[in-house]
Amino acid sequence: MAEITLTEAIFESLGMKRASMDKILVKLEQNVSFNYYPTCEKSNLEHTVGLRGHTDPSIITMLLSDEVPGLEIFQNGEWILFKPLPNTLSVNVGDILQALSNGGYKSLLHRVAASSDTERLSIVSNCYPSKDTQIGPPKELIDDDHPAIYKDFNYKELYDSMWKQRHHDSTRLDPFKVCAD
Ligand SMILES: O=C(O)CCC(=O)C(=O)O
Ligand SMILES: [Fe+2]
């Protein structure tokens, strides 16, 4: 699957050792969801989102949408509308890549706006490790100048903790930090 090739290239670019990469790559899992966003009443638009702000609990997420705009990404303190390109896959960084890269990559906070006049479809593929795979930053990425930001934890712990949090936003990895902010 394309996710393995891409994930491997990202891991290599981080300087991960083959053994650390293989621990994750041999047990990669994938889920695919099909999202349908119906039109919403104009009067509700200020308060209605198609999908509320969240980061994905994945290594990477691949997204294919129709050409109807709706996806918004949070950048420099504001929500920015993402312009879909025809026949193009977008790749988003998820929480697990943020942890594995010791904060080198930041997971993308995003949401989907509701539209009053056009329905929208998207297909989303999440790539994530098996439940028992350790996903703290590997030793080779840690030194005195780059101390570990995240503890060793596994995907099951992240997944369980995610459902206990009220806001599915950039705080999702906080319980797994070595030092609380
Ligand atoms: O529909 C989209 O553009 C994004 C969907 C999404 O963020 C998700 O399913 O996690
Ligand atoms: Fe998402």
From TrEMBL:
GO terms for molecular function: L-ascorbic acid binding; metal ion binding. The keyword Membrane does not apply. InterPro entries: IPNS-like_FE2OG_OXY, IPNS-like_sf, Oxoglu/Fe-dep_dioxygenase_dom, Plant_2OG-oxidoreductases. It comes from the Eukaryota. Residues 27-129 form the Fe2OG dioxygenase domain. Keywords: Iron, Metal-binding, Vitamin C. PANTHER family: OXOGLUTARATE/IRON-DEPENDENT DIOXYGENASE. This is Fe2OG dioxygenase domain-containing protein. It comes from Salix udensis.
